[in-house]
UniProtKB/TrEMBL annotation:
Keyword Iron-sulfur part of the UniProt annotation: no
Protein name: DUF4013 domain-containing protein
Keyword set, alphabetical order: Membrane, Transmembrane, Transmembrane helix
Domain of life: Bacteria
UniProt keyword annotation of Transmembrane helix present: yes
Alphabetical list of InterPro entries matching this protein: TPR-like_helical_dom_sf (IPR011990)
TM regions (residue ranges): 69-90, 96-114, 140-161, 167-189, 210-226, 246-267
Length: 474
């Protein structure tokens, strides 16, 4: 099956499709709303309801992989286990207790291994688990859970037999058989018999797979009867000493094949089964405000890639009406206006954006400032603190002249600003360290000394003066 990817992000698998627009979207473009998880997303381009693709894009359906499950059982580890169990079955002790004890050991080993097979296959691992899964320190409780399951089924059948009606007996037997694969799947996922017997949990498995659960069931049933049929065919002419291990070997083999198929079905329906814990977190969605913001950003990107810059701007503008002070939205809005060379609108927006960015992310503000200067050569922010912050970020980026231009005549432009000494100290550093111009730096430091004799920055002024005089001496 060919994989489809997001039309706008070629590395992301597609999860949604719009038929009218013939566009695939990945989760990248379709943030989920955690406050309305059942909300059906609509197409960002035409607003039509989208079709959910689910894991269909990631997993091949299990019924197309039946031959692979048979091959799976032919790997070394499952064959060794089948051979071992078959061999031991040849040497069954004669006493009842000893036979029982040996059976418990064999069933326990096999079931532990099968559980590992289901777990491996549910992660779509092609390699069977090693034999250590059977002998390792896995949980022993599985044996008792299976025993409980057998006893419960037997009890139900016994109750059904009490009605003396063949129909009731047959229906009970069929129902038990029908839910068994779902119970096994839940038992492996939940590790608890009580949880596995919960009708809601069983129903969830069957509901997730829909009518395809019947395919799974039919194959399990066929695999279960396979050893019987084969031994029946071989029964004529073969001695019991050969027949017994052959039947046991085949039985273990078909159980491995069955487990591989059950495990893969879990993988294929992981979303619906609530199995993919990590992946689920990823797509759990965002609270309403964050969701709307992400949705707007994604939609603007899609519009832009479709060559609809005007609509992209509109989408971001609406989002900004709701959330005027969001830095990310403002940044995108600014970039778009600048790219469109929409001079007036961009400068108008900068009056709002630049102070915002200067507070939250001065480096970003420095970029916006450089853009502003391209639109208007003498652009200056109106706020003293913004000038200072942006100048500092520009100096750090070695855009010394641009940075210094923001600090020029600070005491005249902002006579009431309490941090003029700090701004001039910054400017003096810019002159001395950025441009190597010692004279203007000394002048600025002298100005601080004479105009602000009580400034707490005088220590730093002195230190910089010392550096400058050393530089001047060289
Ligand atoms: Zn995308
Ligand atoms: Zn559409």
């Amino acid at each position: 099956m060919d994989k489809t990817y997001c039309h706008y992000h070629p590395a992301q698998p597609a999860t949604w499709h719009c038929a009218p627009c013939a566009r695939h979207f990945g989760d990248c473009c379709m943030p989920r709303n955690a406050d309305a998880p059942d909300e059906q997303p609509s197409c960002p381009l035409c607003r039509a309801a989208l079709t959910y693709l689910g894991a269909a894009n990631r997993a091949q359906p299990f019924w197309e992989r039946i031959p692979r499950f048979f091959l799976y059982g032919l790997q070394a580890a499952p064959l060794q286990l089948a051979a071992l169990v078959a061999l031991v079955s040849l040497f069954m002790p004669s006493g009842f207790m000893a036979t029982m004890a040996l059976l418990v050991v064999l069933i326990s080993l096999t079931s532990k291994y099968l559980e590992a097979v289901i777990e491996h296959a549910s992660l779509a691992l092609a390699e069977a688990p090693s034999l250590s899964a059977a002998f390792g320190s896995g949980r022993f409780s599985l044996f008792f859970q299976l025993l409980g399951l057998v006893l419960l089924s037997a009890g139900l059948m016994w109750l059904a037999a009490d009605f003396h009606s063949e129909a009731i007996f047959m229906i009970t037997a069929l129902l038990i058989q029908l839910v068994l694969p779902a119970i096994i799947i839940r038992l492996v996922l939940d590790k608890s018999l009580l949880a596995a017997l919960n009708p809601d949990a069983i129903g969830a498995v069957i509901k997730a797979m829909g009518w395809r659960y019947l395919i799974l069931w039919v194959f399990c049933f066929m695999l279960w009867s396979l050893p019987d049929s084969v031994t029946y065919l071989l029964a004529h002419g073969l001695p019991r000493v050969v027949l017994m291990p052959v039947a046991t070997f085949l039985f273990v083999y078909s159980l491995v094949v069955m487990s591989a198929m059950l495990g893969y079905a879990v993988f294929q329906y992981q979303g619906a089964l609530g199995f993919a814990a990590a992946a689920e977190d990823e797509h759990a969605g965002f609270p309403e405000p964050e969701y709307r913001k992400r949705r707007a950003l994604a939609e603007a990107e899609i519009r832009l890639k479709e060559g609809q810059a005007g609509q992209a701007l509109e989408v971001l503008g609406k989002a900004l009406d709701r959330d005027a002070n969001d830095l990310r939205l403002n940044e995108r809005y600014h970039q778009l206006l600048f790219a469109m060379q929409s001079r007036e609108r961009c400068l108008r927006h900068l009056a709002h954006y630049l102070p915002l960015a200067a507070r939250q992310n001065p480096a970003q503000a420095a970029t916006a400032m450089l853009n502003a200067r391209q639109l208007q050569g003498d652009y200056l922010p109106e706020d003293a603190l913004v000038c200072e912050k942006v100048a500092e970020a520009l100096l750090a980026r070695h855009k010394t002249r641009e940075g210094l231009s923001l600090l020029r005549n600070f005491h005249q432009r902002f006579p009431d600003y309490p941090h003029v000494p700090r701004a001039y100290l910054l400017a003096a550093r810019g002159f001395a360290e950025g441009l190597g111009q010692l004279e203007p730096a000394q002048k600025l430091l002298g100005f601080i000394r004479s105009r602000y004799p009580g400034s707490p920055l005088l220590d730093e002024v002195e230190a910089l003066e010392a550096v400058i005089s050393r530089l001047a001496a060289n």
